[in-house]
TrEMBL record:
InterPro entries according to UniProt: ARM-like (IPR011989), ARM-type_fold (IPR016024), ELMO_ARM (IPR024574), ELMO_dom (IPR006816), ELMO_domain-containing (IPR050868), PH-like_dom_sf (IPR011993), PH_domain (IPR001849)
Database matches in SUPFAM superfamilies: ARM repeat (SSF48371), PH domain-like (SSF50729)
GO cellular component terms, A-Z: cytoplasm; membrane
Species the sequence originates in: Salmo salar (Atlantic salmon)
Function: Involved in cytoskeletal rearrangements required for phagocytosis of apoptotic cells and cell motility. Acts in association with DOCK1 and CRK. Was initially proposed to be required in complex with DOCK1 to activate Rac Rho small GTPases. May enhance the guanine nucleotide exchange factor (GEF) activity of DOCK1.
Localization in the cell: Cytoplasm; Membrane
Keywords: Apoptosis, Cytoplasm, Membrane, Phagocytosis, Phosphoprotein, SH3-binding
Name of the protein in its database record: Engulfment and cell motility protein 2 isoform X3
Gene Ontology MF annotations: SH3 domain binding
Lineage top rank: taxon: Eukaryota
PANTHER family xref list: ENGULFMENT AND CELL MOTILITY (PTHR12771), ENGULFMENT AND CELL MOTILITY PROTEIN 2 (PTHR12771:SF8)
Length: 711
């Protein structure tokens, strides 16, 4: 007879004694269980003790968290959080250096525990640590442990960052500004400053006074990628929280300090692979840089503003006059209408009206002027080439440039906040100081080329723009490393190639509507679904690494989950860092019997998402969240690292529970594999010759061993 669900079997350790094997009744108060444990070792004062996990983060067990104890867990009897906090607080203020160092080392480890942190903070522990830093008497390891403990304690959100003193900020900033400082101290100092900026508006101004972007750029030229990551993260935080009028000034400073070329040469083209957190910070910097275009994108042109109108006159002059002739400008205004028509503006009389819609607003005019001045030969060729075509086939440069600018803003999400968890940076945007404008110049030439290839007319304008969007998005997905590589890849994606790709994709998803084919499809579908099911379950057996949601990304925790080879148990456990391959079952200390799983929920129905806000930066987290609900009333919460892993795991869990797999990935795989199998079988039919002998034994149904390379 199985034990009651309220009973868990554990081992409990105590230094210098044999472990106790116990059955814990989860209905009993935790204090009663601790008393029983203390009695087993003849320890008095059970209220001075607590239980902690022996493995992993070794967190304290509370009434709220005790439900997470599983059969076979190894626990450890330890002094209570309050007692540990009091002892450590006394020891870190002792005169003995060795005693203080050991205490700070233990404190740095315990501070990640929310139960301990609450007790330590209630004893004014954060103030004590701040004073130790402000005194300037701690160095080396001692200072590193002090800063680690301080950061861990503050990350619990129990006290406000606004309470931090100016002298503490100056001391931390001093460590960042020092030319030679211990790596661990520098790393933690950068992280503390980043948290200050992100969590307090008033502290942003104080930090901005103590730290300049120029000082941070020096930390990007080191060989340690962790330091580089923290430095870019702080630059991003200062950028993100800066008032709008300060951001352009910061951007100018970054340009003067050659931030882009330093990142390109020391980070992107360095001799080390880019880690996930660095990729995220590069993506954030890319987004924040492009967001500087938002003001121009949302600024309408004022048709009565002569300075703005002069830009349009300059476009006309470069294309048609060859040299400036301001004295004749007024006399020739009547002739401008014809020129504006050849330039491709919608409003030939007053082209300023073409720039009154936002987006793209004045940003489109900025792009056109950049092309006309910096790539004058290209600009003149495009305009004159189209003005000499038959009317019905001319490509309207002005209209195309405006619509292309709008499209590029949508593709690169100009004006949107960075998404948490997104690593989608493009190396080529770090290869040029005017990357946005150069990107536009490449794309407007692509548009003109595609227009000619399609032999388009004015009525085909939207169709051309759709093809150009597809050419650009497909090429961006290839992550070209430079603008020259972008041009080469775009040349390979001609209109005919897009048609071929579309046809190929359409054929692979074609249902072939004739009755015999429909019947064949229905006969094939169950075996293909079973194949997909097995692939999903195999992936669950290999397992995946997941990131724990927390306040700080670079101090993030990881955990791993995988299905047992007999498909009966889910094993999981915490990891110190993201693994490079498969994690052995022995290292995964927790498990859930599949028979205990009641259901799988996703998105906003997940317990860990119900408290999450619907802010933009949480959107992707929400879309990739899922939870396993299991007996008695417990849950295991996941946030998949990407959409592919989300589909694999939710489909795999549904297959495990005998439910229908319904993700977009499964539908896509089903269509693709059925089409492949049908084509093979139809090909066999086409090659049949009528034999004189009895027909051969039919071939076994085709099977596929397929893997994915999901970007």
């Amino acid at each position: 007879m199985p034990p009651p669900s309220d009973i868990v079997k554990v081992a409990i350790e105590w230094p210098g004694a044999n472990a106790q094997l116990m059955e814990i009744d989860q209905k009993k108060p935790l204090s009663s269980i601790i008393r029983e444990v203390c009695d087993g070792w003849s320890l008095s004062g059970s209220e001075q003790f607590a239980l902690r996990y022996a493995d992993g983060p070794q967190l304290y067990i509370t009434e709220q968290s005790r439900s997470e104890i599983k059969n076979g867990t190894i626990l450890r009897l330890a002094i209570s959080p309050a007692r540990a906090a009091r002892q450590l607080l006394d020891r870190i203020q002792s005169h003995g250096i060795d005693t203080r160092l050991e205490a700070l080392k233990e404190l740095a480890k315990l501070s990640a525990d929310p139960t301990f942190a609450t007790e330590f903070i209630s004893m004014e522990g954060i103030g004590t640590l701040a004073r130790l830093v402000e005194s300037g008497t701690h160095f080396g390891e001692m200072l590193a442990f002090t800063l680690t403990a301080f950061l861990e304690l503050m990350d619990h959100g129990i006290v406000s960052w606004d309470l931090i003193s100016l002298s503490f900020i100056k001391q931390i900033a001093g460590y960042v500004n020092q030319p030679m400082v211990d790596v661990s101290i520098l790393q933690r100092s950068l992280a503390i400053l980043e948290s200050m900026v992100l969590n307090s508006h008033s502290l942003y101004h104080r930090v901005a006074q103590e730290i300049t972007v120029g000082q941070l750029i020096g930390h990007l030229q080191v060989s340690n990628q962790e330091i580089q990551t923290y430095a870019i993260a702080l630059i991003n935080a200062l950028f993100l929280k800066a008032p709008e009028d300060r951001r352009q000034e910061m951007a100018s400073t970054l340009a003067q300090k050659h931030l882009r070329s330093i990142i390109l040469n020391h980070v992107i083209r360095g001799n080390r692979p880019i880690k996930a957190e660095m990729a995220h910070q590069l993506y954030v910097l890319q987004v924040l840089t492009f967001n500087l275009l938002e003001e121009r994108m949302m600024t309408k042109m004022d048709p009565s503003d002569q300075a703005q109108r002069d830009i349009i006159f300059e476009l006309r002059r470069i294309a048609f006059d060859g040299e400036n002739d301001p004295s004749g400008t007024e006399k020739r205004k009547a002739m401008y209408t014809k020129d504006y028509k050849m330039l491709g503006f919608t409003n030939h009389v007053n082209p300023a009206m073409d720039f009154t819609q936002t987006p793209p607003g004045m940003l489109a005019l900025d792009n056109m002027l950049y092309l006309a001045k910096l790539h004058q030969d290209t600009y003149i060729r495009i305009v004159l080439e189209n003005s000499s075509r038959e009317d019905k086939h001319e490509c309207p440069f002005g209209r195309c440039a405006i619509e292309l600018t709008r499209m590029l803003c949508e593709i690169l999400q100009v004006g949107e906040l960075p998404n948490e968890g997104c690593n989608d940076y493009h190396p080529m945007f770090f290869t040029h100081d005017r990357a946005w404008e150069e990107f536009f110049c490449v794309c407007i030439q692509l548009l003109n080329k595609t227009w000619k290839e399609m032999r388009a007319t004015a009525e085909d304008f939207n169709k051309v723009m759709q093809v150009v969007r597809e050419q650009i998005t497909r090429t961006l997905a290839m992550k070209p490393s430079s603008l020259d590589q972008l041009k080469g890849k775009l040349r390979g994606l001609s209109y005919s190639e897009i048609l071929r790709l579309r046809q190929s994709e359409r054929m692979s998803q074609d249902d072939f509507q004739s009755p015999p084919i429909i019947e064949l499809r229905e006969r094939i579908q169950p075996e293909i679904l079973e194949l997909i099911k097995q692939q999903r379950l195999n992936r669950l057996c290999e397992g995946s690494c997941f990131r724990k949601l927390g306040n700080r990304r670079r101090q993030e925790k990881f955990w791993f989950c995988r299905l047992s080879l007999n498909h009966k148990v889910l094993h999981y456990g915490d990891l110190d860092e993201s693994p490079q391959g498969e994690v052995p079952f022995e290292l995964l200390t927790d498990k859930i019997p599949v028979s205990d799983i009641k259901s799988v929920v996703t998105g906003k129905d997940c317990p860990h998402m119900k408290e999450k806000s619907a802010l933009k930066q949480n959107k992707e987290v929400l879309e990739q969240a899922f939870s396993i609900l299991y007996d008695p009333d417990e849950n295991l919460n996941f946030v998949a690292p990407n959409k592919y892993e989300y589909c694999i795991w939710t489909d795999g869990l549904c297959a495990l529970l005998g439910r229908e797999m319904g993700s977009d990935l499964t539908r896509s795989d089903l269509d693709t594999l059925i089409s492949m199998e049908m084509k093979l079988r139809l090909l066999d039919l086409e090659n049949i010759t009528i034999p004189e002998a009895p027909p051969p034994v039919p071939k076994e149904p085709s099977t596929y061993n397929f893997t994915y390379n999901y970007g």
